Fold this protein.
Amino acid sequence: MALAVANNVALAVANNVALAVAKNVAQAVAKNVALAVAKNLALAVTENVAQAVAKNLALAVTENVAQAVAKNLALAVANLPRRARAPQRSTILERSALACLDRARDLIIMIAVKKPAATYEDLVALPENMVGEIIDGELYAQPRPAVVHANAGSNLGGLLSGPFRFGNGGPGGWIILWEPELHFGRDVLVPDLAAWRRERMPEPPGTPAITLAPDWVCEVLSPSTAKLDRTKKLGIYAREQVRYAWFVDPLARTLEAFRLEGGRWSLLAAYGEESSPKVEPFEAVALVLADVFRW
C-alpha cells in the first residue's frame, strides 16, 4: 500500500515537473519565434517602404512633390505598429518592431529632404543676367559680376592675349578664353579666364562647352563668390589636373598664383598692385598689375 502511494506521488511529481518544463520551453520557443518573425517582418516593411520611397522620389517632378510622397509614406509607416499589433502584448516584440519602423521613418525623412541633383536643363533655364555653375550636384547661380570685377578680368585677358596668344612681344602658343563653360563629368564650371597650350587644343571644339581641362584658370574674386572659388572650385581644378590657378581680387588689388604639385596646390607668390612680376605659366613677360586694375 505504501509502495503504491509512493509510486503515485512520484508519478504526479514527475508529471508536474515535466509539464512545467515543457511549458517553459514552449513559452521560450514561442517568444523567440515571435521575436524573430517580428524582426523579419519589420525589416521587410523597412525595405519595401524604402524602395517605394526611392521609386516615388525618382518619379517626382519637384522637390515639394517628393517631400509630400515621403511624408505620406512616413505617416503610413508610423501607423503600422498599431494596426498590426497582436492582442497578446509583448514588450520585447513591440520594441523590436518599433525600432525597425523608426529606422524606416528616418530613412524616408532623409530621402525626402535631400535636394535632387541639378541638371544642365537647370542652367539653361536661368535668366540671361545670371551665371550658373553645377558643383557636386548643386546649382550655384550668381548675377553678372560688378563692373570692377569685369574690368579686372577684361584687362588681364587683354594683357595676356597680346604676347601669349598672338605672339605680340611674347612667345605665343596659348589659347586664352573669357568665361568658357567647362564640363567635367557632372560638374559645370565657368572660370573668369582659362587658357590652354595651343598644342593641346589646336582647333576650337564644335560645342558650346569644353571638356578638355585647361592648363591655367583665373578667378576674379567677389564677396559673393570668393569662398566657392577658393574651396569647391579649386578642388575640382585639382582633380582635373589643371596645372595653374590665379586669384585676382579687384577690391584688395592683389594677385595670388598657385601651382598644382602632387595633387596639392602650392602658393607661388602673392602680389600687390605696385608689382610687375613674372608669374608662371606666363613668366616670359612681366605683368604690370597696376594695368590689371586700371579703369
